[in-house]
Specification:
homotrimer; 9-stranded mixed sheet; about 55% helix; globular
Chain lengths: ~290, ~290, ~290
């Protein structure tokens, strides 16, 4: 047996081991543990987000059990980011003054060891969005980036066309771009879509929860980003935090859609589902696996 | 028969012909055709609108089948307006910086041949609002203006008193003002109210759908403006696009109100109704006629 | 009997008289009278408030029967505040430019004799918030301040820790701070919480309506402030206006919670309850007493 063969066997063995561990981990219990902690600790999550979703993401964080605060003034974002247990930055309705506040908040969060979750809404649609994202992320590497496939492709430098703020690509098409970003920034990247992929430099997790009605409600992607902040506040594993947030979004979405004739009712039931989520809902619905 | 008599007969004949055509057009089919196109094409509608309604108008556009994007930074509005198939400008919570972005976006939309729908929220209530509207519209003539009677009267230079952002006048009181604006800017003017009047330089259409609960929900006028953008994206007849938007607002409003004890439930059912709208709903409810 | 004894007896007599009057006043009738006036007169309430709650507070004002307007541009706030019958200022998502507009609006409201209701969201959480509140209130004394216990403690100069925008203290802990502020500014102070205390320089009223689900919905504190503006527009007694607003919030909250599995449904039912409120709801539920 040559050295190379031994190495290959060793790698295969390690892969088998990882697979075995993945299969025996009780994923539902891990996720439920995060929810229990969020409800018990009500972690303060500082959001600098867009005007469209401020109300809905604040309500989703409250329904989950976290404590949201929205603050964007340059005079206070450093102080607020240091007080909070996670920072969520979302460029959905960006402007120059807000970008400067995002930069200040991200620096303060990094200096205080707080996780930073970044949502590159509409990256690729305009130069201003793409360049703002690249500049911010280069200066302060984020903990987790969550975007749709088009946005992730655009951030990685691929030519994925973004139509406004909606993706024109599937999640799988963006997995290489996600890995590029994960390696570049040393972060976790969530590519959301019909299935969600959560990608680190060496692992990929797939979450297959969710419902087709969800893209017909504005800002559910932004809500996923906000909830990722709450999970990152209580779970030091960024990959798990990101995956758990997407799973909870999808599960609450399935529960809401089952009772909804349309997107109006869906929004109401979605908050009710987040609020009332029980361990049995997680156990019976969770579709999360190593990919 | 003198020349004058011949001319009069000719005019009478033309009027009779227009009336005949109006009566034989299948209005429901035309409106349903627009809805089908919006659902199939999901036209991108660029909104520069007010903070109060950003979430609700985005959700209404999504429920109808269009694809909304909100962007207001001077650095990107030109690019975004060129990408989109319609531009919606709403001055509800205006400020100097946003007005400049509105101007840039309107110029880009005009340069790219995109329809511009303009909502003069609160024109007449303060000098800043009235003058901003007049300046913007003089520089870039809009395709469609939608306002309540007080706002349309104020824009036309009449002394209609606006109480905050709510009208103190009926739609019929503003029909001459609407025609003045339609002629001045070469646009279509929608005067919304208990009945809606859609006015061009030479025609008037009346839509009598709707429900008294609608003024008790904030931003339904702004939603009408946003949906007008979606219809203008798929229908080159601005008069028809404007009338169809008001009819769909009114019909979805009737359907929602029938199930609602109050304005909270109404908002939920309204989005559900937009999402689930069927041709039979249009056929059984449409109240649209030449006026 | 010495002079001092006579004075004490006189004070005791006055106290007994006030208590007697309190007990015989038909509180429900007074509150219902305010609601009837709001519905009949639809007072214009000018709000300079935060991005998170603009939609929900506008809808709550409309559901109650008032007419909300949101306007923040320096160019128009003076004019708008003079048009309106009450001004509501809320610093939830403050920035330097907005603070300047708040100052201008407050001066215009004061100059025109309009009541000013002030909400110090997050005072104590950052220096910018605490100092902005103190500067604004010192320059233009408000009519009514409504905050949670932490915010009221922070404004009064106590060391109450604010966690983001949520209180860490009970209302009772802030009663001395509330009285300090009431005396300093010659205003009424509402400390909201599980029970609400409404404090003037010499009186305290306690409102015990409400439901534990209410803090799980974003912006209900801000909504209480907005409704206080509507009541202050029709009732010259600031103490009564403030107390009536908190009672209506609590009663509508109880009615909504009774039908709601979670905070999504709650928001819908809350607006329906405000809209449909009847005198019998007030009579059967009101828990308002001198404290």
């Amino acid at each position: 047996m040559t050295m190379v063969h031994a190495q290959i066997l060793c790698i295969l063995g390690a892969c088998a081991m990882i697979e075995f561990v993945e299969k025996t981990i009780d994923r539902s219990a891990l996720l439920w543990n995060d929810i229990t902690r969020i409800r018990a600790e009500a972690p303060l999550v500082h959001n600098i987000t867009n005007f469209v979703v401020m109300n809905t993401t604040a309500n989703a964080l409250l329904a989950l059990g976290a404590s949201p605060v929205m603050a964007h003034a340059a005079e206070e974002v450093g102080e607020m980011a240091a007080l909070a247990r996670a920072l969520v930055v979302n460029i959905g309705t960006l402007s120059a003054a807000w970008v400067e506040s995002m930069r200040l908040a991200m620096r303060a969060a990094a200096a205080n060891g707080r996780p930073i979750v970044f949502d590159p809404v509409g990256a690729g649609a305009t130069r201003f969005r793409t360049e703002t994202c690249r500049r911010l992320l280069a200066e302060v590497p984020p903990s987790i980036v969550r975007g749709n496939a088009s946005e992730i492709l655009a951030l990685a430098g691929a030519s994925g066309a973004t139509k406004g703020v909606d993706s024109t690509e599937t999640s799988d098409a963006a997995v290489d771009a996600a890995r590029t970003l994960a390696t570049r920034y040393g972060c976790v990247v969530t590519v959301s879509g019909a299935a969600d992929l959560i990608v680190s430099s060496d692992r990929t997790v797939r979450v297959a929860n969710g419902h087709p009605m969800m893209p017909r409600v504005t800002g559910l992607g932004c809500t996923a980003t906000a909830l990722t902040g709450a999970f990152a506040a209580v779970n030091p594993s960024l990959l798990d935090a990101a995956a758990h947030a997407m799973a909870v979004m999808g599960i609450a979405g399935e529960m809401a859609a089952a009772q909804s004739p349309g997107p109006g009712t869906f929004q109401v039931r979605f908050l009710d589902a987040l609020y009332g989520l029980q361990e049995s809902d997680i156990r019976s619905r969770l579709k999360l696996e190593a990919a």
